[in-house]
Amino acid sequence: MKNIKCECGHVNPEGTVLCEACGKPIEGNQHIDGNDKKKLLNMRYDGSARRSQTYNKSIVDKIWNFFSSVKIGVWLIVTALIASAIGTIYPQEMYIPADAVSRDPSIFYEDRYGITGQIYYQLGFHNLYGSWWYMLLIALIGISLVICSIDRFVPLYKALKIQKARRHASFLSRQRLYSETEHVTSEEKNKIVSSLKKQRYKVTDENGHILAEKGRFSRWGPYVNHIGLIIVLIAALLRFTPFMYLDDYVWVREGEQTVIPGTKGEYYIKNKDFILETYDENDERFQKAIKKEGMVPKNFQTNVIVYKESGETIPGEEPELEEVAEDEIRMNHPLKFDGYTLYQAGYQLNEFTSMTFKVHETDDPEETSLGNFKIDLTSPKPEYKLDSGFRVVVDQYYPDYYLDDGEPKSETDYPRNPAYVFTVHPPDGSEPEMSFVGIGKNVDATGENDYKLGIQDFKMRDVSGITVRRDYTLPLFIVGALIFMFGVTQGMYWQHRRIWIHPTGEGILMAAHTNKNWFGVKKDIERMIADTDIKMVDDQQELDD
């Protein structure tokens, strides 16, 4: 690529719109920033040569130019926002309710939401935030931010670093604030320089040519914003890695001990006791709510012990555990240990743990037991042999029984309302008999059974739903947000102001530019030229209007 030598002697890279040294517009390049059709110069990037405006030959150049476009970046962000909004219409796969008919997303969405749920699932929105294309979209936004920043920051930094006080007359005359004074005394020149210094301008004097500058710091605000956003995007991508982010759920029954999911079997949780407290139904303050909603919980908590596996464990052998923490987990009072946090998220009351049945003769009014058997509902057996010689086969088991158009089904996989289809094989080898048995239900399939099954005893317990969470990305989000807000403050509350003074014989040309708050820079100039005969600058944009 060819370099461009200005009449001032400075060699500019190709694509430069305004000479980096004197600011003279480079002929043939004014179309890049639209200066060829405007009286006032576009000073957004100080006419510096940006790679995206200069190189356009290789595939690397085309990719760079594509991602350096602000429009492309905006469209990527809008697309991500729309996709994220669609992802909130229905719950994500990981948040399918535990009491759903099935936690299989192919069944749940269609069953719960109909045709729209089926379309939602088939389009892949059920697992949106973990999908490859959503992560790719977030990565593309990050790439766009990086390339946009580099494409503008580096040349702008170089242009501002090497700017000189001596500027070409055409550069000054095409600034928004401009004036020409025919006669200025040396005392007046000294007075305005002194005034600029008092207003905390950095003054550079180059053989009578003066550049007064302050607030350059504000020009880097947008790029600080980009750094903050990039850190936030990196944190968002890291949430898809199991080490950096974990959000899981576990049901723990009273008296049971189970592995905490996501800990690779290192930690265990034991439910010592579940406590549910409700509002007093006799209290007038709560009667309307209780009448409308039923039982209203005031507090529900789980008293737990967390264990950690210690030492090496041989496969098949019970692990050695040491206690890590013991506490009450309740709403807004989680349990924290070793980077993990356990939250009380739900509960199930009165879940059956076991049921004991007896066999008796159908026509026996005393229902004298001919044998009994106990079903452990956590791991029911398919067949039970009684000491009296009877054999009972469990043909069908419905943990949470309900009727769907006359057909028995199970609403969930949890034993809340268990029902069974039993086949009883008598000890004398006669024909087996079939019965349907449940809570308050005992149906003889043929009406001619000699033997009947009845519930003799049962045990129940409560179940706690615990959310397991670990988030190492939160500090990154906080750092990124703080940097972003610092950049917003930096760009919003400071302004980059520059005032040029160009001597012409006995007079001067004066011009000024700022990236925002033109009223403020005008007030600075008014204070600078107070008690002098120097002409106040005209706002050429207002004059054109």
Automatic annotation (TrEMBL):
Report membrane topology. Answer: Multi-pass membrane protein
Q: Which InterPro entries match?
A: Cyt_c_bgen_Ccs1/CcsB/ResB, ResB-like_domain
Localization = Membrane
Name the domain of life this protein comes from.
Answer: Bacteria
Arranged from A to Z, the UniProt key words for this protein are: Cytochrome c-type biogenesis, Membrane, Transmembrane, Transmembrane helix
Keyword check for Lipoprotein, yes or no: no
User: What transmembrane ranges does the database entry give?
Assistant: 72-90, 132-154, 223-245, 472-494
Q: Which residues form the ResB-like domain?
A: 70-430, 449-525
Q: What's this protein's name?
A: Cytochrome c biogenesis protein
